């Protein structure tokens, strides 16, 4: 029988035995010691650990699922680091808004195949779930459709789709450095390497920002005469191309914005002047960070023809090397607004167009026929 004086000690040792066993097993599994012994520690209560790592590798974490509703989605995206990870590869996020199958998918496939590495880009698609997509997305576009919602002209839904794409791209890859938006009728008119270098070497966004355009007041008042006040005064309102390339910092700025978006995310009382996708982004960037952008788009479009609010459509018979060379040599229109348009550095710029629109679906074959010799040959015909 144990001595009465030893009985409490024996009980204490018996109670401590399970703790000692767990501690020993944990150390054997993780191969690490606690910080006070000079080694990296790993909490066994980590919520996202996929595997038990060894001492030479950091813990692998599974990110939380991306929300389907816009409010939590954008709130989560607004918390990402706006800075690109130092020393890592800069990637371009190619983002497509479409309500149809992508008619130029084979051409884009050739474009992406010209890259030196598949680690230089990511693809994201916003596809209206109320539409049919036949053929389905394949190749580089396979499994790249984000959670999408209905989108249509004369409503805030197209701008909302672009915000959704930005949020997904921000959350998907911290190496996404530049975020470029496209429509189904957009085509590349330069090689991937030329396009990539142009975008990732820029510290500024490329977004058209125009002031005092025709119908500016009507666009501003499309939701009602005073609907934009007090947040967006008429003198703050801007117009620009729907298609832009934003830096990571500006992409997060869009995700963080609630105040300005609330004004644009309203039903218009005048449908014929309601183009939030062409007004929200240039207005926001100009109000928040005008010096952080080049006030021009790198997607060429011909507005000398205006067919019901649509620019010129290039038909198959018009597609020739001379057309591509002409589009490449055209100088972008730069914003004429204060520190942008009157700034010497902007007035002397001549950035290259990298993309063009609108092309009819029938233009695919002639475009494919001259893809290697012209489209993706940056020195073709002296262009």
Automatic annotation (TrEMBL):
Its main location: membrane. It holds the Pfam family Branch. InterPro entries: BC10-like, Glyco_trans_14. One of its GO terms (molecular function) is glycosyltransferase activity. One of its GO terms (cellular component) is membrane. PANTHER family: CORE-2/I-BRANCHING BETA-1,6-N-ACETYLGLUCOSAMINYLTRANSFERASE FAMILY PROTEIN-RELATED, CORE-2_I-BRANCHING BETA-1,6-N-ACETYLGLUCOSAMINYLTRANSFERASE FAMILY PROTEIN. It comes from the Eukaryota. This is Uncharacterized protein. It is found in: Membrane. Keywords: Glycoprotein, Glycosyltransferase, Membrane, Signal, Transferase. It is a single-pass type II membrane protein. Residues 1-22 form the signal peptide.
